[in-house]
Structures are given as C-alpha cells and as structure tokens.
Amino acid sequence: MAGRNFCIGLMFALLAAGSAIGLEPEFVIQIKNHRFVPAELHIPAGVKVRIVVDNLDETQDEFDSHSLNREKHIPPKSRVTLFIGPLDPGRYVYEGESSDIPGGAALGVIVAE
Amino acid sequence: MRYRSRGRALFTSLLLGPALALRCQTAWTIDSSEYLFLPTVTQGEREIDWHFGVGSSGATTRQAADAGIGIGVGVTAHWYTELDLQYRQRGPSGTALDAVEWENILQLAEPNQWPIDVGVVCAIERPQDVNERPSIRIGPLLQKEFGKYQANINLLFGRHFRSALFPATEIKYQSQIKYRYSEPFEFGLQAFGTTGSRRQTWNELSGQEHRIGPVALGHFSLRHDRSISYNAAFLVGATAHSPDRSVRLQVEYEF
Asked: Is residue A15 within a helix (H) or strand (E), and if so which, with residue range?
C-alpha cells in the first residue's frame, strides 16, 4: 500500500511540474516536397526549446535524429511538437523519411550556438 | 498432424536455439519477458519483437530459458500495443507456449516536455497452465535525459485475477542508464528485480531477486525506412534468490 501511495504522489508531482510548459522559445520547421525548410535552424545553446514540425505534404514524413534522441512520424498535413535541449553548442543532424523519394531522405541540421 | 508437429518443433528450436546453445555452459533461470519498457511511442511504427533469456540456477532458483515473439504497432502518438507469445523451458520437461500477453504503453507527454518523461505500461497475461489465473502488470515508466546519457526506471505492480494460489501483489522494477555513444552502439547498465514473490509482496533482502549488469544497445537503419534494434545484457545475481548469471537479448524489426 505504501508503495502504491508513493507512486500516485510521484505521478501528481510530475504532472504539476509539467504545468510549467509553454515557456520555451518556439521554432518552426516546415516540410515541403519532402525537404525541411529551413534546412538549417539556429537555436540558442543551453536553453530548452520547442520545435514545431509542420508537414505540408500529402504524405507521411519523419523527424529522426540519434544526436537529438528523437524519432517522430508526422502524418500528412499535420504538425508535431518536439522539446529539445538544453543543448551544448554544436550541430545536430536529423533526417526525414526516405521511402520512394528521389535523392533519398531529406537532411536538416539544428545549430545550437 | 506430423507436419504441424515438425513445424512447431522447428519454430521452437528457432526461438530457443541460441539459448539451448548456452545451456551446456550455464544453468538457467530468467523471465524472458523481463525486457525494459520505454515510455516513448512512435505513431505508425510496426515492429516484430523477438526476445530470449537464459539464467543459471542460483541458491534457490532453477535453471531456465525463455523466449518470445511479439508484434506491435504505434496506434497513435501516445499508444503502443503489442501481442506477445511467450515460450518457456524449465529443466527437462521441454519447451512450450507458456503465456500470451497483451502489452500496452501509454506515452503521457512528448519526450522532454516535462522534467521527467512519463509513460504507463499495462500488460495482461493469459497463462497456458489451467491452474494459473490471468494476471495484470501496471506501473509508471520514467525516463530522463542528461545530455548523451539516458536513465530509465520502471515500477511494475503485478496481480493475478482471483487467484488463491498467488494472492500477493508483485512489485518489480526495471532500470537502465546508458550512454548514447553512437546509433549502432550504446552501452550502459541494466538492473531488474522483484521485492517478493507471487505469494508475498515483500520478502527480506536475501529472499528478493536483484540482477544487474552491463548492456549493449544499437539501431541499424535499413532501406525503405525499416530498421533493426537490439539490446543485450549480461546480468549477475545480487542475492541468493537471484540466478547467478543470466543473459538476455531483444531484437526488434521495425517497419
């Protein structure tokens, strides 16, 4: 019983902490014709940011990056939100979906500076 | 009928082949379902999940080998579901389908949206043994990134439905810390444990099961947006009630 109460308390604490969301700087990346726009996004280093990936295409796409530890599928004509950072200064590469796309997967880079 | 039996034997040997190969070197006991749950879901991703484990006998545990295969899908951005067939070998009695499990993971927020990533797992198991009742496991999945490090800890509460044989609530934990060195190779430590048994929720420390050891993980991208992920761990028992040594491997084909 004590273990169960501890877990319930922990869940509420986490949810309360989560109510502080929405304060992060927001950046938008669009997907047009299976290409990321902008292909290079500059964000502040050392700050947690919110990145909205807006898929304008009629097909599903993806935001996939090992260096950012994110993999997100984006349905057609929809957007997803990613929370990234605080990042050390550097370049963080990500890629899109490659199926049936001439030239292979789209590449993008987030530059933290 | 003969062909069905041969097919079943072949299927079983494929599942447990690696485990059987190790049997001559170690004795075993491990729960193959003991792989780490993650609180993140990828919508639309389908995966075939193969896992097995072998555990040596401990002071109070039997040697064992387990394997399983499941198929799952990210139904929405926040819900992953998987159906898992679990096979088990215990001593000389052979290998057989042990249970069917329906596993569900709920991702409560986007990774890094909250100070700690939180998910919930709910798994319902239907054992093949008519003497055992179905059971449920439910609990929070917690994850935190620290730069290139990632820590996970899960608490699982297990309960059999209307079972006089196993009346207690089981408390299990799963934990991992890993360094994300590169996509094909990450490494870290994993630990699994149980505070009691199906008859008693909390045992004294020597009666609890705790296993800890190194883990290697990786992800390989294939053509046509398919990929293979693996994680393999060598775990050492920390109490008399734990298997002295166990090896577990999980391979996932994502498509």
From this structure: helix A2-18
